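Re: weekly structure request thread

Next one in the queue (505 aa):
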Amino acid sequence: MAKPLFNQEENLNIEERDISAGADDVMRERKMKKYDVMIIGAGVSGSAIARELSAYDRKTAVLERASDICEGTSKANSGIVHAGYDAEPGTKKAALNLRGNTLMEKLAKQLDFPFRRNGSLVLCFEEKDRGRLEKLLEKGKKNGVEGLRILEKEELLQLEPGLSSKAAAALYAPSGGIVCPFGLTAALAENAYVNGVDFYLNTEVKAVKKTAEGYRLETADEVFFSRIVVNAAGVYADELHNMVSGKKLHITPRKGEYCLFDKTVGDSVSHTVFQLPTEYGKGVLVTPTVHGNLLVGPTAMDIEEKEGVNTTAPGLKDVLEKGGLSVRALPAGKVITSFAGLRAHEDGGDFVIGEVKDAKGFIDVAGIESPGLTCAPAIGEYVAAIVQEMMPAARKRNFVAERKGIALIAGMDNRERQEKIRENPAYANVICRCELVTEGEIMDAIHRPLGAVTLDGVKRRTRAGMGRCQAGFCSAKTVEILARELGKDIGEITKAGGGSVFLSD
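Done, posted below.
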């Protein structure tokens, strides 16, 4: 077995030689936590990398500025597993998209998260645009996507009767799919944690400094040291990169607004329906979700604010109008919520993944915009291979490759429900009526590896609060359960960490 480069109990004196500060700072350095590899960011990319690295005998950790995993780009996106016809051939996006799509089905079975290969359509509304559709087909073939073909109007409307009659033709990709972004990220992170990766939440990296032996990462309260750093910080990846490299990186937050519809119209389409892409991406899509809702969006607007996730009246109007071009009679009255997410658009347009040339041991995983969610499993493999080349280690003999998710009462038949209730009567106490989520499921979400500590954390893991009433009835009960199970006062429970408390003096 490979010997870890640093033992947790060892004293590391490298940094102390470089410090001419006060006694408090010196004490922080002496208490420094030391790792072989540190990943910055616990979104889907960081979690996928952590899961791959957890299979090897190294000391690995993840630092996350938010109160939970999956708090950034990974929590607010389309949940699409792209087939791979859109990326430019020869790019990292193209190669990793195809590989990620291929890996997703097996990974969903191993780690028990919702995934469905429902296929996708790219609509062409005018004959003059047919050439663009054919170019997309050829691009997909060059990327290695199988099963692509163009459907004429009659066959298209037979496949999807709810589509607009204005659709003239479509590119059909049977390998396209849909996934739960929260479920995927949680599954990867939990599995990494079970296999020995340390996660530090509420831990924002304020500074990264190169040393003779690796990198010192400074937070508000702690100092960490790592031989290798993986920068998977989403829209903040450029800021971290620019702390260590003379060749600067620039990421633009690209905001996308969405409308989520009630499950009563979740079957409006069965495939993911795109329109011909523009310079800003794949445009407004209409898709079912793995949980039975209908999702429409996103817009695409470049902004400066890296926390600018507010929705706007013009943006949501644009979503509904453009979505209505694809689907007949889009039921605007069935919208139950709206939200916005940010995509990390790097100026070069491709993913930036690899060791930084003038910062040895610092690996960028930057500019991970669409199809980043699809690519995540492949990104995990890719980065793990880079780390293995830089720092060879033996594969763990006791690596746990499988994980079981939360047992969801809503997905069980009557016999299974009764059996679960006999095991634990808390599964008979329904907390969220819209999504049929019980106290037992919420308790599981809190006590499982990397368990929920906030209302949003429970929501993402169980769907409590994601239904028609949008947590109008279940929030108070969920907060009570969180306080009880975590041994806290109700006033300490937050919606999403920080100052988002429910009760205050």
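The CA atoms of residues 209 and 438 lie 47 Å apart. The first helix runs from residue 23 to 30.
Next request, please.
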